[in-house]
Design a protein that fits this description.
The chain has 5 helices and 2 strands; from the N terminus they run H-H-H-H-E-E-H. It is an alpha+beta fold. The longest helix has 15 residues.
Length: about 100
């Protein structure tokens, strides 16, 4: 379930992200639950956003380390590959900090 405050934060921050990072953020929101890189890739593909898995994984690291808008939510078996993998989720508190710093 996506809370109204999450949707508002997403709408405020989304336009200021570089294109490839915006695409990955969209993929994370399409999944609606913490998801693996491959699940994000499949969600984007199903929604008509063709990309490659090797375009997804670096953006996840950037969005975590440089932007602070996502975090690792644990590990579980990937629904696409069947292998254990990190699952990613949005971090709203970090969004507020990120947005404030860039709005000054």
């Amino acid at each position: 379930m996506i809370r109204e405050t999450s949707a508002q934060a997403f709408a405020e921050i989304f336009p200021s992200l570089p294109h490839k990072r915006r695409v990955v953020m969209m993929g994370i929101t399409l999944c609606r639950v913490p998801s693996t890189a491959w699940e994000i890739f499949k969600a984007l593909d199903a929604a008509g956003y063709p990309t490659a898995i090797n375009c997804i994984t670096p953006r996840l690291t950037e969005l975590r380390d440089k932007e602070g808008v996502i975090r690792e939510a644990g590990k579980r078996r990937c629904l696409v590959t069947g292998k254990m993998a990190i699952v990613w989720t949005l971090t709203i508190g970090a969004w507020a900090k990120w947005y404030r710093e860039r709005s000054l």
